[in-house]
Amino acid sequence: MGADSLIAFNLALLAAVIAPGPALLLAMRAGLTGGWRAGFETGLGLATMAALWTLAALLGLDALFTLFPWAYTGMKTAGAIYLIWLAWNIWRSAGAPVEAAEARRTRPFLRGFLVNIGNPKSVLFAGAVLVVIFPPDLPLATSLAIAANHLALEVAFYALLALAMSRPAVGGAYLRAKRSLDRVTSVILGALGLRLLLER
């Protein structure tokens, strides 16, 4: 594995992390409503599962899904149902004060982890981008190093995002527009979940 492959991987990964999707929306909202710690823990959960998808792809996940298409369908369906459930809960708590809404929240790390289990962006990145960038049959140590690099990059990104979202000025702006922003977030997450359920 050359340095050029690692640079290409990191650039592709950064573009995927920054692209709007359920993971980014969840991390931003966690930082806004729960402060830096909640935002960081959510990002850590997202990053951990995404890095595990990368490791799984390097170890042959794409071959597994080719042999057992139902495994991908089942995983995608479970992820879609979770996104719809998450959207419903965000919609329902949109009008509640932040303290009341946060009291019903599951642990931030677990929530982030679960979202990326069925996040199609994570799966597609792992299954498609990696096979283009890296040669097949990498040694286990190299695959572990690539997954660790993935984890480190995403953790750093989400830590910075949580810091930005937890700033008083940003948090104050969120509180003033909480109902509308939560409803928009809920609609986007719900639409993503429905799309996953309905697409073939």
From TrEMBL:
Keywords: Cell membrane, Membrane, Transmembrane, Transmembrane helix. One of its GO terms (cellular component) is plasma membrane. The chain crosses the membrane at residues 6-28, 40-61, 67-88, 109-134, 140-161. Its main location: membrane. InterPro entries: LeuE-type (IPR001123). The keyword Chaperone does not apply. It is a multi-pass membrane protein. GO terms for molecular function: amino acid transmembrane transporter activity. It is found in: Cell membrane. It holds the Pfam family LysE. This is LysE family translocator. It comes from Pontivivens ytuae.
